[in-house]
Amino acid sequence: MALALANTPLRVVLLESGGMTFDAKTQALYAGAEVGAPYLPLDTTRMRYLGGSTNHWGGWCRPMDDIDFEERTWMPYSGWPFGRKALEPYYARAQALCEAGPFIYDKAFKWSSDQGPTIALGDGGVITRWFQFSKMRGSVLPTHFGDRYAEDLRRVPRLSTYLHANVTRLGLDGGGAKINQLDVQTLNGKRFTLKPKYTVLAMGAVEIARLMLASNDVNPAGVGNENDLVGRFFADHPIPRDTATLVLFDGKLAPFYQNNQIIHGAIMRAGLFPSEDFRRKNAVMDSSTTIENKTELDDLGKAAVAAAAAALGVDASNATAYSLGCGMEITPDPNRRFTLDTGRDALGLPRLKLHMRLADTDFARFRQTLKELGRQLLEARTGMLRLNLKTRGQWLDGLDWGNHHMGTTRMHVDPRKGVVDANLQVHGISNLFVAGSAVYPTYSAANPTVNLLALALRLVDHLKGLPR
Ligand SMILES: Cc1cc2nc3c(=O)[nH]c(=O)nc-3n(C[C@H](O)[C@H](O)[C@H](O)COP(=O)(O)OP(=O)(O)OC[C@H]3O[C@@H](n4cnc5c(N)ncnc54)[C@H](O)[C@@H]3O)c2cc1C
Domain count of the chain? Predict the structure, then answer.
């Protein structure tokens, strides 16, 4: 956002808690408590220095679909205040910031065929679609925004960047309708205040909620929390491992399913996704299924493959099995939330407590997509699927997460249903805005960063039009 504001008359101050590299004391400011379903420790699931969690990200990119913005009767709390069209003008720039190559995604089919065919599937709800990746540096690391853009930030006129500057309080004016002061502290005891005309919180979905809740000297509920929504609706993308075993009868799999490949100048990988139509008609959530390592079938599995191949009249002598991975969307839940805890960090800020919940219905809905994939494989006589996870214990065993923090200051036009409005302004506070996936009302399974960047660039256009 600071770069995008570079060629405007606005004077911008960028306050960053960390420095240019990892520092254990700064990172420890992120620690917190957790109860409920297992989740990642709060101080390891994000990074606190310039560039934030992009210092650690995987670089997977995918824009959201039309349906992700729609109100769905079967998905409680769904519906963004605008459709995908509102973000479309910004995706190309967001993609460029991620250094993810030309914006191709599902157009990759035009160029991918020389690497092999996509998996033949019968007509139905699951289709092959594409991820793109932030440029890999030294073959492993995607764009780290701090390293990549520090020099560019230095060159921006009218921008002052303060490192090691932790915002510790949002100061509301007496009426509670405006931020009139930010309190800032360093870990070595320096303090200063700022009186900005406009403030944008871009500290990641967990820390934004914490600062808003902890700034409770004027309004005991915190800033922007009149309707007790700040910190609620936290979400991430569960990544269950080995959800199913995919068997391809002829053993042939194009390389772009298992590994990143260069296609038309972009780094791409294919996955298996529920179509928008299938999601609408069958009330299923979004998901992205990836094909992982080859795996050995047990005797029962081998017998099942032999029986299915005989019934279908296909040759399965080269049948090969693969483990499937997945990123899942989950249902918005107001009780999956952060509250302030009793302990305090080194700057005196209350720590957070995460109340984590995971609904069995979300796993059940994802199973519907896997079952549909299995049906389509059989219909096309290409292969078959064995679903590996059934009980809650099985889903949770070894469950990983995307580290994609979302939802804690959700967007809604109605202040009783959302913390920020369609312009990302905190309801009732004329000069406070939120940038990042904290504002997502629903989460898609799309990787969040390219989408939150598009939203942030849209916010920049809004800020440019505000009175100065
Ligand atoms: C292991 C891992 C893998 C991931 N993989 C992917 C992926 O493949 N694809 C994808 O799309 N996303 C991925 N993500 C998520 C991605 O990193 C985030 O979506 C993205 O970094 C969010 O950007 P942000 O700027 O909103 O927040 P953050 O990256 O969290 O940045 C917040 C910034 O605010 C600073 N800050 C915090 N508190 C304060 C304070 N009080 N005062 C001043 N500054 C403060 C922090 O130091 C930090 O620089 C991954 C994340 C992790 C951890």
Answer: 1
Strand partners, 61: 132
Task: Decide if 341 is inside a domain.
Answer: yes
User: Is the Cβ atom of 166 under 6 angstroms away from ligand 1?
Assistant: yes
Q: Does ligand 1 lie within 6 Å of residue 57's CB atom?
A: yes
Please work out whether the CB of residue 418 comes within 6 Å of at least one atom of ligand 1.
Answer: no
**CA 449–ligand 1 middle distance (angstroms):** 9
Residue 404 domain-assigned (yes or no): yes
pTM score:
0.97
Quote the CA–CA distance of 454 and 90 in Å, as a whole number: 5
Asked, for residue 387, whether it belongs to a domain, the answer is yes
* Mean pLDDT, 10 residues at a time, the chain of 468 residues: 93 98 98 97 98 96 98 97 98 97 94 95 98 77 93 95 98 94 98 98 98 97 98 98 97 96 94 98 97 96 96 97 97 98 97 97 96 98 97 94 98 98 98 98 98 98 94
451 lines ligand 1 (CB under 6 A): no
Summarize pLDDT for 33-64 with one digit per residue, the tens.
999 999 999 999 999 999 999 999 999 999 99
449, 451, 452, 457: residue to mutate for ligand 1 pocket, most atoms within 8 A of CB:
449
Q: Tell whether 6 is covered by a domain.
A: no
Q: What span, in angstroms and rounded, lies between the C-alpha atoms of 392 and 278?
A: 25
Which residue puts its alpha carbon closest to atom 9 of ligand 1? Answer: 60
Which of 172, 167, 171 has its CA nearest to residue 428?
A: 172
The residue among 243, 202, 216 whose CA lies nearest residue 374 is 243
Nearest residue by C-alpha to atom 15 in ligand 1: 404
pLDDT tens digits, residue range 257-291? 999 999 999 999 999 999 999 999 999 999 999 99
CATH number of the domain encompassing residue 346: 3.50.50.60
User: Rounded to an integer, what distance in angstroms lies between the CA atom of residue 292 and that of residue 435?
Assistant: 34
Structural domain boundaries enclosing 21: 12-464
Compute the distance from residue 432 Cα to the ligand 1 centre, in Å: 20
